[in-house]
Amino acid sequence: MVQDFKSFQLLFKINIQPYLLFFVSYSKMPFQAKQKSRTMHTWQALAIYLVLAANLSEQQALKQACPSCDASQLCHCSSMSLAFIPPGLTAKITVLNLAHNRIKRIQSQDLQQAVNLRALQLQSNEISSIDEDSFQSLAKLELLDLSNNSLAHLSPVWFGHLFSLQHLYLQGNSYRDLGQSSPFSSLRNLSSLHLGSPQLSVIRQGNFEGIEFLHRLWIDGSNLSQYEEGSLKSIKEINHMIINLKDSNIFSEIVRDLLHSVTWLEVTEIKLPLEKKSLVQNSTRPFRLQKLTLKEAFFTDQTISQAIVLLKEITSLRQLEAINCMLEGKGIWNTDEIAKSGESFVETITIIKIMIQNFHLFFDLEGMESQINNLKRLAITSSNVFMVPCKLARHFSSLLYLDFHDNLLVSKRLNETICRGSWPSLQTLNLSQNSLKSLEETAKYTSRLPNLNNLDISQNSFGEIPDVCKWPENLKYLNLSSTQIPKVTSCIPETLEILDVSGNNLKEFGLQLPLLKELYLTRNQLKALPGAAPIPNVVALSVRRNKLNSFSKEEFESFRRMELLDASDNNFICSCEFLSFVQHEAGIGQVLVGWPDKYVCDSPLAVRGAQVGAVHLSLLECHRSLVVSLICVLVFLVILLLVAVGYKYHVVWYLRMTWAWLQAKRKPKRAPPKDVCYDAFVSYSENDSDWVENTMVRELEQACPPFRLCLHKRDFVPGKWIVDNIIDSIEKSHKTLFVLSEHFVQSEWCKYELDFSHFRLFDENNDAAILVLLEPIQSKAIPKRFCKLRKIMNTKTYLEWPAGEEQQQIFWENLKGALKS
């Protein structure tokens, strides 16, 4: 925004301000002068308008063609089918990506305003024409990619003003040469240069003039047929040069020019034989070439013997690589000529995926013993090696590193490959991904290597592990990962400082290894960290991708020397204790590898997938056991309280009574006449039994005719539940006679009898109940739940026991009359 405002200010001062000053002075002019100047300045104002309109339309066109350029210093306009460089590029753009479009031409004005451009990517277009001054304003450009276009020639004028250019990509175009002179003479800061194509056929002397240092030089010369001697000699230093070349004679010429400048030379698709002419003839000394890599090269027994002799002349050469090469032959090399040429200076040989037809017929390279005495590092991987002859193995006297990864070695053949006296100086041995089956035999044969301290036998199918094994005395590093061992035993030596048993489905690790510093237990089935006591000096521990749910502060702190712990990619149970520990332990972020991104909760379900460091549980979740315990205690206390209340207030009795009443409700409301055998059922308090039994019963049962009364003391069936007795007695009686008194109201038994008689009788709305008031009772003293009884006493007549004898006679007559009704 500030930059746009400043640009507007500049435009205002240059283009508009003079015209405002003119209009101020214009008002002071005479009339005729005003008419003359009016026409001229009208055209000038129109020109300003057209310029502003054009600028605005270009910005709109740029935004429409490449939306990512809007308000950004980076313009990513690749794969948008653009046929031209979009207009409206401004000075604020630093990166412009126009790759994979259909641009055919770069014109002078296309990039004129992009003066701050740092990177310009135009690869994979259809560019065949570039105006000479197209890049003139790009003095700050550091990267230019014109690869995979249709440029038929390279012009030095294009790059004349690119003083800051460091990376230039020109490969994959259709030019056949680089011109008569150097296109790169002005590129003093160039660091990497990629050029060439299948059409490139000529490299001339002077094509690389002006270039002194290159970090990387890549040339596609697959069809290069002419190379003028000294063409690359002008470059003083090249760290890494890659050339795709098929002509072996041109290869020899290029090597002679590069021996003084290139550190690492990588050649692809070379087809030997080499010419017998020396590789160092007319070369500038001292030699700088230290590493030679041959990719997809083709050898025969004859040409490889010749190559070995010629490469010995390069006294600086220390590393030799052969990757994806093919060797046609049986190993019948000219060992006499090789031996006469002297010792080799090469210290490291790496062979990866060499294809040998009928490799099982390959000879044992007898006669090459003198050429391997000084070799220090040898790697032959993915090449079907199944054995090394003992005689040859004993001559690797200086070898420190041996890599036979991904071959066909078997346990029984190790007796020949690692025979007694072989590999005497070997310190590191890699036998991973072979066909070894016996861990005991592998240990026994490697124990013949007195200086061995690093052994990798991973990705072999041992399946079993013995209890005791014999290993090299100085073994410090052992890799047993992915070997299908079901457990760890004392077969593993106590001298180890680094042990890798990853990928073996181990469920526990309790091995005593007092010197161990690094332990790798990735991809196993461990549910807890291994104990710290057997491995007290461990500095780094990996338990990634196990079944670890958590680890406690005590477990973590038991490893007193722990500096790195990789427990990532486990299914952590994010309990409160675990979260509290990992979130508040000081410095744990520096110890845990991959923290916090690789530590994710698996449970509780509410936080599954969340990072352990970001989870915060509620108080209820953190003290769930305590909350459950409190709830259980409260439930127990409530139940205890209910039992106590029920016992005190006879709740069980009332429940049983209610059940009996419900059963009584289902019975017929009146018993059949044959079952009625009492005139009245008498309900009374035990405190009133003297009056009932001695006065009322005598009077009624001795009357003429006598009344038959049902008394609970006399007529209830023994052993039968009292509630059933009450209900049966009421049903078998014509009337129910209640002897009411203060004792009756206070008696619990009377309440029960009144309850059931209330349910049975008063619900039928009949007059089967006779109330005898033995003594005056206040209406309020009757329980409120007997609402019908209270209503009857308030609305109907009841018999009251009189004190005088004359009135008592009337009482008996009335009572007898009530019983007969």
UniProtKB/TrEMBL annotation:
- Enumerate the InterPro entries for this protein: Cys-rich_flank_reg_C, EF_Hand_1_Ca_BS, Leu-rich_rpt, Leu-rich_rpt_typical-subtyp, LRR_dom_sf, TIR_dom, Toll-like_receptor, Toll_tir_struct_dom_sf
Q: Which Pfam families match?
A: LRR_8 (PF13855), TIR (PF01582)
Membrane-spanning parts: 626-647
Q: The TIR domain covers which part of the protein?
A: 676-819
One GO term of the biological process aspect: inflammatory response
What topology does it adopt in the membrane?
Answer: Single-pass type I membrane protein
| Disulfide bonds listed in the record | C69-C75, C390-C419, C469-C491
Instruction: Please indicate if the UniProt record lists Transmembrane helix as a keyword.
Output: yes
- Signal sequence coordinates: none
Which UniProt keywords are given for this protein, alphabetically ordered?
Disulfide bond, Glycoprotein, Immunity, Inflammatory response, Innate immunity, Leucine-rich repeat, Membrane, NAD, Receptor, Repeat, Signal, Transmembrane, Transmembrane helix
One cellular component term (GO) for this entry is: receptor complex
What are this entry's molecular-function GO terms? transmembrane signaling receptor activity; triacyl lipopeptide binding
Q: What does this protein do?
A: Cooperates with LY96 to mediate the innate immune response to bacterial lipoproteins and other microbial cell wall components. Cooperates with TLR1 or TLR6 to mediate the innate immune response to bacterial lipoproteins or lipopeptides. Acts via MYD88 and TRAF6, leading to NF-kappa-B activation, cytokine secretion and the inflammatory response.
Q: How does it assemble?
A: Binds MYD88 (via TIR domain).
Identification of the protein by name: Toll-like receptor 2
Q: Which organism is it from?
A: Cyanistes caeruleus
Q: What is the lineage of its organism?
A: Eukaryota, Metazoa, Chordata, Craniata, Vertebrata
Q: Which gene encodes it?
A: LOC111927833
